Amino acid sequence: MIDLRSDTLTKPCPEMRQAMANAEVNDDVIDIDPTVERLEQKVADLLGKETAVFMPSGTMTNQVALRLHCRAGDEFICESGCHIFNYEQGAFAQLSGLVAKTVAGEGKVLKKDQLVNLINPDNEHAVRTKLVCLENTHNKGGGVVLPSEGVAEIATWAKENSLAMHLDGARLFNAVVQSKKTAADWARHFDTVSVCFSKGLGAPVGSALAGPLSMRKEMVRNRKVFGGGMRQSGIIAAGALFAIENNVERLVLDHANAASFAAVVDQHANLHVDLEKVHTNIVIFRVDPEIGSAKEFVDRCEAAGVWMYPFSHDTVRAVMHLHISDSDARRAGEIVCEVAK
Ligand SMILES: *Cc1c(COP(=O)(O)O)cnc(C)c1O
């Protein structure tokens, strides 16, 4: 089975497991776990931020970030397809009393001009507009890398209007290797940045939220209220450290595999890929109705040995990762075309 459902499926390699087994640990709630501390410092340095806090998931880092920038009765602006709005159970509303103002970006990319009239007036009728959240790379956008000038324009406008900026960078390192910009180059437009170690980087668990030192206490406090205070978490932090030290540059291989898979799939008359949009490790392709719905097509592909998720009624998502070789990627494309016949 060639499993292209997600880049979260990867299992730690023997060297990563060894690093985890050897990790020096301590109670990170009562004291400081030295391995967690090393990871947090490394992430802060990479992102050019003063501090970073290790958390169990990207959902938690995002939700903690929202609470740093917003209070109950505030709102944030985000792209309508983003993870924070679509895939986190509306935690911002359930747990923090926040409202999301969603804006559909062209190809999931927001432009400053779409946002300029969206700040609520300061009166008792409206929720207060406090924050802009962007996602890079954008999952629903098929792993597209945001245009950096566009991000800079939004950030400048946000600053002029006293709005904070948060980046959901679950796949920021995919954007880093694709754009040849550093993580810090991307991060400097944002007050807080969330990154995941358990996506393309291949660690079993963990995310980090980076930002100014002045926010660290609140990050840790909010992590605790969400149940994310962890004790000897150096064990999992060691996996994340290994991932960030060893698995960033190799993301180019996943990107090349996505491109070759996409090229094969797009050759079929009834399968369509916007090849220009295949920037990183995700491929979204459209299935013509005559071969069935995306769900039906995905079921047939699974039976033929390629596992993917339907992404809408007529689109399918395939994701490349550490366990997919270049021949797997090509073979998967051929199987998908075979099934579409
Ligand atoms: C996976 C992901 C997250 C976080 O997911 P968790 O499963 O909670 O770690 C956040 N944002 C994006 C864009 C993601 O793809």
Shape summary: globular
Uncertain parts? none
Named once each, the bound ligands are: pyridoxal-5'-phosphate
Give a short account of the largest sheet.
Answer: 7 strands, mixed
Record field, number of beta strands: 13
Short description:
This protein is α/β, with parallel strands linked by helices. The protein has helices at residues 14-21, 34-47, 58-69, 83-86, 91-96, 112-115, 148-160, 172-179, 183-187, 216-225, 234-246, 251-266, 294-304, 326-340; strands at residues 2-3, 51-55, 74-79, 99-103, 128-135, 164-169, 192-196, 207-211, 271-273, 282-287, 306-307, 309-310, 315-319.
Please specify the SSE layout and strand pairing.
Layout: E1 2-3, H1 14-21, H2 34-47, E2 51-55, H3 58-69, E3 74-79, H4 83-86, H5 91-96, E4 99-103, H6 112-115, E5 128-135, H7 148-160, E6 164-169, H8 172-179, H9 183-187, E7 192-196, E8 207-211, H10 216-225, H11 234-246, H12 251-266, E9 271-273, E10 282-287, H13 294-304, E11 306-307, E12 309-310, E13 315-319, H14 326-340
Helix pairs in contact: 1-11, 2-11, 3-10, 12-14, 13-14
Bound molecules: pyridoxal-5'-phosphate (PLP).
